[in-house]
């Protein structure tokens, strides 16, 4: 394999007409990407300084997880001021600089918008607490009287996504116990009341603020959450007392039709700006509901989370490709492939779990994963993903093959789910990036500070170790991204053809290449496989020295 051409000094030549349709979007988790001031917390100037790395890698856009003013009770998804930068991350001028530098390098910028809830430190919530029941201030959030003789019971039986009750009772300004407020997430994340037109105005202004500053789009957090069912009825609950998720439905407080009206308000705002501004929704909703959220008058895209839940096997992977492609065809919006993000166990660890692992098992982070196997399968699947038409969302560090960090001491864990319920939580996928093997904090921070400790195994995975090593995960990603761009794989509208293949092998063809993944236990001899004939290997997740595709690996090939 040869090293691909470096292109960071010249913006890509593509036109950006509906650029998001085939974009490779790299998610930056600002706390953990690069720390410029040595306080152990990543920041905006740190991200800016690493943009050439991302341009080199070949990404089209970055999505920045929240960097707004926030007490950081949920890693920034608890926003106290939507139109300012938290001093931990820098200033508005730093945000402007980041956006400008990204654009100079031909990289689009997607900001995160968090409309379901704010931080309890948001001035509007503080005003709501002070103003008392029935006031316009209180009507900005979901407050309700409690049940029981003295209002001592919560208004309904809803539970929080982060475990425990979804309601907390407040002490009124006069010192008496008072109303309850809803928080589908942590107690520090009160839900906005989207029945109130002032909440609509507030968020329209937030969108305009960042669009004016040049962002190219938004990733919408809990995009299915804002509108609650009328009357806030009790939910059916599971044996464990948690809000039930009936088959084919979302929990009672998600995916209510009124949410769609919010996108109908937002879409004309985005469309009124030049340059194809877009929104991509984080909506964990049943597949059959997704088409409602996508279209010319609603959102451009929604994350398709089916692919990352595929268990290892040719049939399961094929099904996880076919389903979203069929859906994408129906709504004329490309599929958004994703394998990892800041909420999930990193896929290099997930694919090393024993076969009986069920996706979403909360406690699985601490199970022993076969990390060697996990990385092999993760590389193989990433390569499949990058060949598929549509857009691909990468999570920082997956290009290095970073594993989940399972052994973070409990006292250092920050995830509210860990604090509320003692589950390991999501810190294990948020450990700061290793940039340089022989530098303090592996190059993350010049002082050696790091808000979460980096494990020893991160050293060998550092960027400077993998750079220019043709067998490394980093170079595999770089090569695949550049080939994807050159061959127009993401933008292809040709139907995918699934080829006859030996047991355990999935082979698909489009745009002149064949993508093969061997999920079986023995190597597959490509030369003996009549479906392929003479072929050149363009990129592979493992070496194919004797023309055999090893088990747990994949390749892109071109027929000669
Ligand atoms: C989804 C975000 O990705 C996650 O990190 C956050 O905790 C919840 N939404 C609540 O905002």
Question: Keywords, please?
Answer:
alpha/beta, disordered N terminus, binds 1-deoxynojirimycin
Describe the structure in your own words:
The chain contains 13 helices and 20 strands. The longest helix has 18 residues, at 314-331. Helices cover 24% and strands 15% of the residues. The strands form five sheets. Strands 11-10-9-5-2-1-13-12 form an eight-stranded parallel β-sheet, covered by helices on one side. The chain has helices at 44-49, 51-57, 92-104, 123-131, 197-212, 258-271, 290-293, 314-331, 347-350, 371-387, 416-421, 463-466, 473-487, and strands at residues 24-28, 61-64, 68-69, 81-85, 108-113, 143-144, 167-171, 177-182, 217-220, 278-281, 301-302, 336-338, 391-395, 497-498, 505-510, 513-518, 524-525, 535-540, 548-549, 553-559. It has 560 residues and is of the alpha/beta class. A hairpin with a 6-residue loop joins strand 14 and strand 15. 1-deoxynojirimycin (NOJ) binds next to loops.
Helix and strand arrangement:
Elements: E1 24-28, H1 44-49, H2 51-57, E2 61-64, E3 68-69, E4 81-85, H3 92-104, E5 108-113, H4 123-131, E6 143-144, E7 167-171, E8 177-182, H5 197-212, E9 217-220, H6 258-271, E10 278-281, H7 290-293, E11 301-302, H8 314-331, E12 336-338, H9 347-350, H10 371-387, E13 391-395, H11 416-421, H12 463-466, H13 473-487, E14 497-498, E15 505-510, E16 513-518, E17 524-525, E18 535-540, E19 548-549, E20 553-559
Parallel strand pairs: 1-2, 1-13, 2-5, 5-9, 9-10, 10-11, 12-13
Antiparallel strand pairs: 3-4, 6-8, 7-8, 14-15, 15-16, 16-20, 17-19, 18-20
Helix pairs in contact: 5-6, 10-13
Bound molecules: 1-deoxynojirimycin (NOJ).
């Amino acid at each position: 394999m040869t090293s691909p051409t470096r292109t960071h000094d010249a913006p890509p030549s593509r036109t950006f007409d509906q650029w998001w349709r085939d974009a490779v979007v790299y998610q930056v988790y600002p706390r953990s990407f690069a720390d410029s001031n040595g306080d152990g917390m990543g920041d905006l100037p740190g991200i800016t300084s690493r943009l050439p790395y991302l341009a080199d890698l070949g990404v089209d856009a970055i999505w920045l997880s929240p960097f707004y003013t926030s007490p950081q009770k949920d890693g920034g998804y608890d926003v106290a001021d939507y139109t300012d930068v938290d001093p931990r991350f820098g200033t508005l001028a730093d945000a402007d600089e980041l956006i400008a530098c990204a654009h100079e390098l031909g990289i689009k910028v997607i900001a995160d918008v968090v409309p379901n809830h704010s931080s309890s430190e948001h001035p509007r919530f503080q005003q709501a607490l002070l103003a008392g029941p029935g006031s316009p201030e209180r009507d900005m959030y979901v407050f309700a009287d409690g049940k029981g003789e003295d209002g001592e019971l919560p208004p309904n039986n809803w539970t929080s996504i982060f475990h425990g009750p979804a309601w907390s009772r407040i002490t009124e300004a006069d010192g008496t116990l008072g109303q309850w407020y809803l928080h589908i997430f942590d107690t520090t994340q009160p839900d906005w009341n989207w029945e109130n037109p002032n909440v609509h105005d507030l968020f329209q202004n937030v969108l305009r603020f960042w669009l004016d500053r040049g962002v190219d789009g938004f990733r919408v957090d809990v995009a299915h959450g804002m509108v609650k069912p009328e009357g806030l009825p009790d939910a059916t609950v599971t044996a464990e007392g948690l809000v039930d998720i009936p088959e084919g439905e979302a929990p009672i407080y998600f995916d209510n039709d009124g949410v769609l009206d919010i996108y109908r308000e937002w879409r004309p705002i985005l469309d009124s700006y030049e340059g194809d501004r877009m929104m991509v929704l984080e909506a964990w909703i049943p597949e059959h509901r997704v088409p409602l959220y996508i279209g010319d008058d609603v959102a451009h895209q929604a994350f398709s989370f089916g692919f990352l839940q595929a268990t290892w096997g040719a049939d399961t992977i094929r099904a996880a490709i076919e389903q979203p492609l069929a859906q994408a065809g129906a709504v004329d919006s490309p599929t958004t492939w994703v394998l990892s993000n800041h909420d999930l166990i990193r896929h290099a660890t997930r694919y090393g779990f024993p076969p009986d692992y069920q996706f979403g098992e909360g406690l699985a982070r601490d199970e022993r994963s076969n990390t060697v196997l996990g990385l092999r399968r993760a590389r193989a699947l990433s390569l499949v993903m990058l060949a598929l038409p549509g857009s691909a969302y990468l999570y920082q560090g997956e290009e290095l093959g970073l594993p989940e960090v399972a052994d973070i001491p409990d006292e250092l864990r920050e995830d509210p789910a860990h604090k509320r319920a003692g589950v390991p939580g999501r810190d294990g996928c948020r450990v700061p990036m290793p940039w340089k093997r022989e530098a303090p904090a592996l190059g993350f921070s010049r002082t050696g500070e790091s808000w979460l400790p980096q494990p020893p195994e991160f050293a060998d995975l550092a960027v400077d170790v993998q750079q220019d090593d043709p067998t490394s995960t980093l170079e595999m990603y770089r090569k695949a991204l550049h080939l994807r761009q050159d061959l127009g794989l993401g933008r292809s509208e040709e139907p995918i053809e699934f080829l006859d293949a030996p047991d355990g092998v999935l082979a698909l063809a489009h745009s002149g290449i064949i993508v093969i993944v061997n999920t079986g236990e023995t190597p597959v001899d490509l030369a003996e496989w009549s479906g392929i004939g003479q072929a050149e290997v363009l990129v592979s997740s493992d070496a194919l020295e004797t023309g055999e595709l090893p088990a747990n690996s994949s390749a892109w090939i071109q027929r000669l």
